[in-house]
Amino acid sequence: MGGRLTGTRHLLYVALRQDRKSIAPWIALISVLSASSVLVYDWVFPDPQTQQILQLNVTANPAMALIFGRPVDLTTADGFNAWRAGALGAFFSGLMAIFIVVRNSRAEEDSGRAELVASGVIGREARPAVAVAMAFIASVLLGVVSALVTIAFGGGVANSAMLSATFAASAMLFAGVGVIAAQIGSDARSANTIAVTVLGALFVVRGYIDSSGAPDWAVWLTPFGWLQETKPAVDNIWWPLALVFALAVALVAVGLALHARRDFGMGLVAPRPGPPRAGAVGNLWGLALRLHRSALVSWMVGFAVLGLLLGFLANTVTDVIAENPGIAQVLASGAVSQEDLVAEFLLTMIRILGIYAAVHGVQIVMRLYAEEMEYRADPLLGGAVSRSAHLASHAVIAFLSTALGMVVAGSVMGWVADSTGDTIGFTDVVGQSIATIPAVWVLVGLALAVVGAHPSKRLAGWMGVVATFALTILGPMFNLDEWVLDISPLWHVPNVQATDPAWSGLAWLALVAVLFTTVGFVGYRRRDIG
Amino acid sequence: MESVIRVEKLVKSYGRFMALHGLDLDVARGEVHGFLGPNGAGKSTTIRVLLGLLKADAGHVEVLGGDPWRDVVALHRRLAYVPGEVSLWPGLTGGEAIDLLGNLRGGLDEARRAHLVERFELDTTKRGRQYSKGNKQKVALVAALSSNVELLVLDEPTSGLDPLMEMVFQEEIEAEKAKGRSVLLSSHILSEAEALADRVSIIRDGVVVETGTLDQLRHRTRTSIRATLEQAPETLTEFAFVDDARFDGTHFRGAVEAERVGEAMALLGRYGIAALTVSPASLEDLFLRHYGEGVPATASGGTTAGEPSPREHSDYVPPAVDGGPAHGGPERPHGRHSAAGEGA
Q: What are the residues facing A274 on neighbouring strands?
């Protein structure tokens, strides 16, 4: 290998050994996502009639297209899989690749380990090249494993291979985004934020395009759209993947070029001197606010943008529904009214907002633990600070910020929907958003409970969000029993537009949230730090 | 004498690994107490128990008359702590961090803050991520030393400081002591402890194996003697009480217990002393005596020797003891990256 990449092979070997435990769960998760839809399809939708109903239900609720993409053909197991796992799988593959690249380039620099490596016989581009190579290897592995597992569970060979290939391509693409972000950000955390924001923004734009009845060419506006254009299980067109791959390679090239222009341990923007004295940051609460400040700002922008998009979407729903002959038939039969469909769509969208808010809240709580792991809880708790106050400084931000986010998103969405059409009222949307807050707090509380009492089990905090998502958005489609759906806190949120909303649900949610939070606080007082 | 720290039979385990087994420690008010031992001996674990960051499994721990696990807030107003590994908030400036840490203890002495920032030549406008290890330590030191507290708990506070700053540190600690403050100074820099400490405790494998003033410790150990005599003695029998007595022509070397130095001098004097060096044991000798000779610290010491505490950053791998393994420690709790024992 040439001088600039000297040592890449050795470094790659070590890095792969170190990182395989972090990569494996992602590959498993995405493979299960794909295989599970094939597995359950024949079981839940055994005959053409139920399959038709599924197709109709999904088409009737554009909020589904927002998350999963346009349903093409849900009357076959592979077609269903391509819809259910396609966009989500590409999203998670991208997330995996970003984390791999940042963890192996930027985070290594932050920890000082990279300095040790850089002083060895190693080319300048070797470290970022290793990070990208790892992401690419993981991408290929992901594609192969996901395809094999899906086929093993009954997926068609060509169809499953096509779908899994889109996952791999997405991972490679976002490895490219990740390596650029790793050069721009001033540390691993900000690099992750930059890259994940790009990923999230592209995903949301894709969702809007898919659910708003936009013209066909608009699909090409995001790389997610390119992946969709492979039409897995329907046409299996391979060439759009070449486009994605070419873009991935170009992004990596840009990333490596930026790397060569950057000082070790610094971002592209040199840090400026700061204030010599602490102002607002001079106490526990000020510190917590400062630590979360940039995250809070970007999430609030996210809430507002999401509200805006959903608001615009809210009034297109009637058009989208009207275009579908099947739904028109159902409407004509009088089984459901158009208002019912709009209400259901609205509920789904606000549930999606709730899940988005929960991710934000759980992330804040997890940050508390990250601080502890980086030895930054020690000096604070070495001061005259009680454990409870320390936990509270983060918990209060998590609770308030998720609530504020729901209000912001609900208000923007309600305002846009109200002013652009006449089917949806401002107060209904805002009211429903506010009613969803206690359910979000249950998930934040769960994260507090595990981080406070048992941080080695902190994954449970994220599992809560994932389970809630699966149960709330997918559960009804799979005709799950009521008691299973009841596990999701969002399922207990009353519909404020109903004639007799089940307000008791809110009380139960609040109670569970308080219970979880108490467990967190009591546990945090009792456990060792670090 | 009143104690500011009293620890009796302290036991602390991380899972199956026992970091401290029956540690005793006593720090008197107004003294600088050196807490010596290599990384991995249990110094940081002890200190983290003293701060209420870790819960003791057994034993009695008292800090400033209170229980460090229960009376956290009240106690921490009266003490200041400099961690062994100072990790600053990457986005906060050093000045902000100093004020924050000071405020959390109930406020800083402004004049003292300014004085210390100047003495340590610290640029307080840099961000946490820009500081070197030594500068991070200075930030923590300025915050701790400019607080009005009774007790300073310093965990290897100077491991990143340059010799000039080390001097400044020693002067500032002397000043603290002059004000009547008590200091627990954990260190493996022996010259620093020798210069500052009134008393020292040497820790090994989670127990304190030796404690006392330097003089007391020296008294328990041997003084080495080198001499050039005018004539060589015919036999060595007279020198039986001298350890490792050796003659190389008229050059003599050997070591005696402290109370027999006079006896040795009298004996050597009979042969006419042309040149003489008598050196009492340095702290380094004391230290090496406990660590270099492979003596197990306790009956069970041999089996756990060399297992660094999960929280310590060890580059020190002690020699195998009694055939016991000189291997690295267990994984850190929660699967955190372990630097400990990677050299093994």
A: none
Q: How confident is the model at residue A269 (pLDDT cuts 50, 70, 90)?
A: low
Contact B129/A110, CB-based, under 8 Å? yes
pLDDT band at B311 (very low <50, low <70, confident <90, very high): very low
| Whether A119 contacts chain B with CB within 8 A | no
Same fold: B3-217 with B222-280:
no
Map tokens 């991995």 to a residue: B40
Domain boundaries, chain A: 1-269, 283-530
- Taking contacts as CB-CB distances below 8 angstroms, the residues of chain A near B137 are none
Nearest CB among B53, B98, B127 relative to A381 is that of B53
Q: B332 pLDDT band (50/70/90 cuts)?
A: very low
Exposed, middle or buried by CB within 10 Å (0-12, 13-18, 19+), for B248?
A: exposed
**What are the φ and ψ backbone dihedral angles of A102, each rounded to 5 degrees?**
-65, -40
Spatial distance between the Cα atoms of B34 and B155, rounded to a whole number of angstroms: 10
Predicted pLDDT of residue B327:
41
Q: Is B66 helix (H, G, I), strand (E, B) or coil?
A: strand
Count of A–B CB contacts within 8 Å? Answer: 135
Number of helices and strands in chain B (H, E): 11, 13
Q: Quick check: ipTM above 0.85?
A: no
Helical axes A387-420 vs A426-453, angle rounded to 10°: 160
Three-state DSSP at B22 gives strand
Computed from CA positions of residues A217, A222, A225, A229, in that sequence, does the dihedral angle turn out positive or negative?
positive
- Residues constituting chain A: 530
Interchain proximity B311–A530, CB inside 8 Å: yes
Is B105 in Cβ contact with A383 (below 8 Å)? yes
A385 vs B: CB within 8 A:
yes
Compute the distance between CA of residue A350 and CA of residue A134 in angstroms, rounded to an integer: 38
Nearest residue to B122 (alpha-carbon basis) of B95, B96, B146: B95
Residues A33, A85: contact at Cβ < 8 Å? yes
Contacts of A291 in chain B (CB under 8 A): 89, 91
Tokens of B79: 């003490």
Nearest Cα to Cα of residue B253 among B263, B262, B242, B240:
B242
User: Would you kindly state where each structural domain of chain B is located, as residue ranges?
Assistant: 3-217, 222-280
> Helix crossing, A188-211 with A77-104: angle to 10°?
160
Q: Which CATH architecture has domain B222-280?
A: 2-Layer Sandwich (3.30)
The answer to whether the predicted template modeling score (pTM) of the entire model surpasses 0.90 is: no
Q: Does domain B3-217 have CATH number 3.40.50.300?
A: yes
Distance CA(A93)–CA(A138), nearest Å, equals 10
Contact A277 B95 (CB under 8 A): yes
